[in-house]
Design brief:
Chain lengths: ~130, ~400
């Protein structure tokens, strides 16, 4: 799949997928990478070292700094795939240098898929083995 | 997005790390929102100043940028997490103060004015009608767009900094005329008698006209302080950071009254008050100045507090810019307020100071202040300046 580069870069990791927006400020514990937001489909799951796949960001612009803080403490996702990236996630990915691509049909990706981001390209490695 | 040769050079790192990072941010935002180019901005207001919100990572990022980043246009700063001079008296810890000062020092190295206020338009960062600016701080963004008629999107801290380092912002959103057209008519059929009524009105419209640009009719009188409070409230509770008031704010003549209509009556304002207010009578903190008090508001506080004494069970804070406080010093208002037992909280405010756990209840004139106080787990009361001063003197909300 081909999308739009928000932050260029290459990475290969397991996917963590949700159809709900994510707020990094208040919604994710920056010390552990665990999603805290009550009632969120990924509540209790860790985004650390995952390619995090979600439709879009939401919430306070401080969320950009939260992503940066997670990157520094090693709890950040290794890559981000969005349906439609917004300001908070875009700025967060850029200042933290986390590969980020949007305009991807995220319904094609499942949690635990092995995914590659290569700039604007997204490749699912295990499609045949599902 | 079209970039000039010079802009491309910055993006490729020819002008150093901060310029490169800034261009990456501006270009990404421009691409996301389909901007055709970057445009010059007249000034910038930067949020994300309180160490309480930034944490160590934010501080590190700012220190990295301060190594080679210099602002290109007039750039002012949002409130910090503490009064930069009087922090001890306001109960701030040594450790917090040390980190907060490091944040301020980083901004200073970038060439930013250490104004620490959410009302930059009251202290020298005053854009002209129609001017493009890149501001963060939602209340100031809304005031600038609506009351002044300048043009800005609602920037976040890093995107505002990026605009300051480059002197430009992507040309999208509220910078474009076509996105500034009002699309909901708000007919105000209720009289607005006191400052907090404007906060209540902002709440009512914000929650009913989410993400819309309101065109208000039926308001015949509103001063700058009331519009400042209304701007803060309407955007906190959900509207776009732009509104028009017929006969009061600039530019409304250009537009037809939108077809979609909401009528706001007395009962809607009462409903807003009942949503914003909690059941509480003992008031531990009274804070006036969200957004920061103007000199006119400080003078009103002084005249209401003259020859009175704040209750020993209550703290009374006046949140303002240091510039307004200095005017207040010269005019003797500070002396009256401090003699009554009140404190000035300059450079900071009830939305960004680390207040969680320190006070159980707060009274204020501000609907926005109530919103953020609830985040800090306080029970809230909103009322007029006089009701707030009475609460500070008696320790009770009546």
């Amino acid at each position: 799949m081909k999308g739009r580069i928000i932050m260029k870069g290459n990475v290969q990791d397991m996917a963590l997928v949700t159809s709900q927006p994510i707020s990094f400020y208040g919604g994710v514990d920056p010390n552990t990478g665990i999603i805290l937001e009550k009632g969120h489909a990924l509540q209790g799951k860790s985004v650390k070292g995952k390619i995090l796949v979600f439709p879009t960001g939401k919430g306070s612009t401080v969320g950009s700094y939260t992503l940066y803080r997670m990157k520094k403490s090693g709890t950040a996702p290794s890559g981000i795939i969005n349906k439609e990236c917004e300001t908070v996630i875009a700025v967060g990915a850029i200042i933290s240098e986390i590969p980020c691509v949007d305009m991807i049909d995220i319904s094609k990706i499942q949690t635990d898929d092995l995914v590659i981001i290569e700039n604007e390209n997204v490749i699912i490695l295990n499609v045949d083995k599902r | 997005m079209y970039l000039t040769k010079k802009e491309n050079g910055m993006l490729n790192g020819e002008n150093g790390y901060s310029a490169k990072k800034s261009m990456e941010i501006l270009v990404a935002l421009g691409e996301i929102y389909n901007a055709e180019k970057l445009i010059d901005v007249g000034s910038v207001q930067v949020s994300g100043v309180s160490y309480h919100n930034l944490g160590d990572a934010g501080l590190e990022f700012l220190e990295e940028l301060a190594k080679d980043g210099k602002v290109k246009v007039l750039t002012t700063l949002n409130p910090a997490g503490m009064d930069l001079e009087n922090w001890k008296n306001l109960g701030i810890s040594e450790d917090f103060a040390r980190k907060q000062k490091m944040v301020i020092n980083a901004f200073e190295r970038m060439g930013i004015l250490i104004s620490c206020t959410c009302t930059p338009y009251l202290i020298g960062n005053l854009p002209r009608y129609g001017e493009h600016i890149a501001w963060s701080e939602s209340s100031a963004v809304t005031f600038a767009n609506s009351v002044i008629g300048a043009k800005t999107n609602r920037e976040g801290g890093p995107s505002a900094l990026a605009a300051a380092f480059v002197g430009k912002t992507p040309y999208y959103g509220l910078h474009l005329e076509e996105n500034r057209i009002p699309n909901i008519h708000i007919q105000v059929d209720s009289s607005l008698k006191k400052l907090s009524d404007f906060g209540a009105l902002g709440y009512s419209i914000g929650t009913k006209a989410e993400n819309k640009i309101p065109y208000l009719t039926g308001i015949h009188k509103a001063d700058v302080d009331e519009l400042k409070s209304f701007s803060a409230s309407i955007v906190t509770y959900g509207s776009k950071p732009l509104y028009y008031i017929e006969g009061i704010t600039p530019g409304y003549e250009k537009y037809q009254i939108p077809k979609e209509k909401i009528i706001i009556e007395q009962k809607d304002l009462q409903e807003a008050y009942s949503q914003i207010n909690d059941e509480v009578s003992d008031i531990e903190l009274v804070c006036i100045g969200c957004p920061h008090c103007s000199i006119k508001e400080i003078s009103q506080i002084a005249s209401l507090l003259n020859n009175k004494q704040i209750s020993p069970t209550t703290e009374f804070w006046v949140a303002s810019s240091r510039a307004a406080k200095q005017l207040s010093d010269v005019n003797g208002y500070t002396k009256i307020i401090e003699r009554a037992g009140g404190k000035f909280a300059c450079d900071t405010c009830m939305a960004v100071a680390p207040l969680k756990g320190r006070f159980k209840s707060v009274a204020t004139t501000s609907a926005k202040g109530c919103y953020y106080s609830r985040h800090n787990k306080m029970l809230t009361k909103m009322g007029s300046m006089k009701e707030c001063i009475d609460a500070a003197v008696t320790g009770k909300w009546k």
